[in-house]
Known about the structure:
Structural class: alpha/beta
CATH topology: Rossmann fold
Largest sheet: 7 strands, parallel
Helix content: 40-55%
Radius of gyration: 18 Å
Strand order of the largest sheet: 3-2-1-4-5-6-7
Number of helices: 8
Number of domains: 1
Mean pLDDT: 94
CATH class: Alpha Beta
Bound molecules: NADP nicotinamide-adenine-dinucleotide phosphate
Low-confidence stretches: 1-6
Shape: globular
CATH architecture: 3-Layer(aba) Sandwich
Amino acid sequence: MLPNSNGNFTGKVAFVTGAANGIGRATALAFAREGANVVVADISEQGNQETVRMIEELGGRAGASLLPKAIAVKCDVTQAEDVKTALDKAIETFGRLDFAFNNAGVEQKNAATAEIEAEEWDRIVNINLRGVFLCLKHEIPLMLKQGGGAIVNTSSGAGVIGIKGGAAYTAAKHGVIGLTKSAALDYASQNIRVNAVAPGYIDTPMMDRFTGGTSKGREQVISEEPVGRMGKPEEIAAAVLWLCSDAAAFIVGHAMVIDGGQTVQ
Ligand code: NAP
């Protein structure tokens, strides 16, 4: 049997953006491990296919009769039509939407505020903030129709403190927390819980780009982490699943910082 620690994931449906890599992939796998069917939505078609393959492999190994299923859907979160089509596909395939993890995001090129090109500002805000809004806009009506759901948005440590050389990313990630709080208030009475996670430095392909993939770059990042290591994508996935579970039924509009103490002052 697949593990099902909270007893409320089997047969449910989770939509995960940025699921072709890093935190999104780890969370898609975690949902599947708990028995949920997963819609793997990312701009990278090849990465989507690989995540689906990993989920299928997981099910095969578990040897359970009620295997979780996964589908890959190409989805650029900056494109409303892509988001709508991906969610339509979720309903068409699985008939419902219980959980959404709005996680797709990109890092900013390091630059002082006045040096950020307007195009770079737009790119970052478009993917990291507007993308989350577009997902909420199309997920919430589906959840309202079926009487509820749980949504988690990905912010960052940069959502709670300022980051030198990262004004666009920091503004977008602070924005995700504001958006999460307002959306949470809008729908709490209709049984939809909206929360956020704010990860610290997590060992993913994004972090490889951020550190330049060098041991010096990694050491610099680790030196900012009080626990003396980077986080693992699975550690964010665990928090996302908990926020989606009935154990978190009274948690609304919260931004959960998961960062090894990085932003604790
Ligand atoms: P990652 O390893 O780069 O994975 C992100 C995924 O999102 C990639 O597959 C990427 O595809 C995809 N993506 C990029 N633009 C997209 C778009 N417009 N529409 C749909 N998918 C898109 O990054 P990660 O580290 O897992 O980060 C996931 C989230 O956590 C992001 O929101 C990030 O800001 C946040 N976060 C990460 C850290 C960290 O330390 N890693 C810390 C705090 C917050 P491509 O690779 O093809 O671009």
